[in-house]
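Consider the following input, taken from an annotated entry for FCD domain-containing protein (Endobacterium cereale).
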Amino acid sequence: MRVERRPKLFENVAQQLRAQILAGDYPVGEKLPTETRMTELFGVSRTVVREAVAALAADSMVEVRHGAGVFVIDNPTLKISAITADMGNRISRAVNVLEVRMGIEIESAGLAAQRRSPSQEARIQEAFFEFEALLKQGEPTGKADFAFHREIAAATNNEFYVEILDALGDRTIPCDRSSPWYSVEVLSPDYLGGLQREHLRILQAISAGDADAARDAMRAHLVAAKERYRQRLSGQQADYSQNHMEAAAKPAL
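Applying the prediction step yields:
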């Protein structure tokens, strides 16, 4: 049986301070709370606080100025690491949602092709054309995108497909402005136009009553969405890192 090493007290304190510094709670040049105050805030001894500060100083995040206190110093490399880690988390979470949708929506498209009523098909078409209108107007398309997929789920006449999409909520459409993983990089006209062309193939297959074609079209749509989202955010991450590394390399005037 493997026994996990528990973090030492000073590591926990250092981790909390590190997160606060990277979040901007303590900007560059600002003084950290006094040693006495930190013992109160974290409920630890002075020795633990000193060890935590020493760890941050070793990471070049703070500078100890004797007689003055502990001050936050600039460290572009650590900032980039934190931001890229956050982007990586956003990518993986969004991709995970899309993978769940693949497990659900591919079959729901096939069932919708077999079971939809005329009124249900009309609602799918209505959501499709709403997306088209919003795209031409340059307006957010997320709600229409979600409605398109939700109406397909409703057309299965199995309420559990709808319940699952509703449970995912604003995480369902990664490119929507209300999504937790929203990025302007995935809201370009080319990106959204590609989504709509894929929607058209799904709609045509459902309208034709071709279950296999509907499944294939939905699969292609979700796989492409997953790859586009990964590539665009990965590209944004690379650009951000490159720009900030160049900025960090410039000598101070």
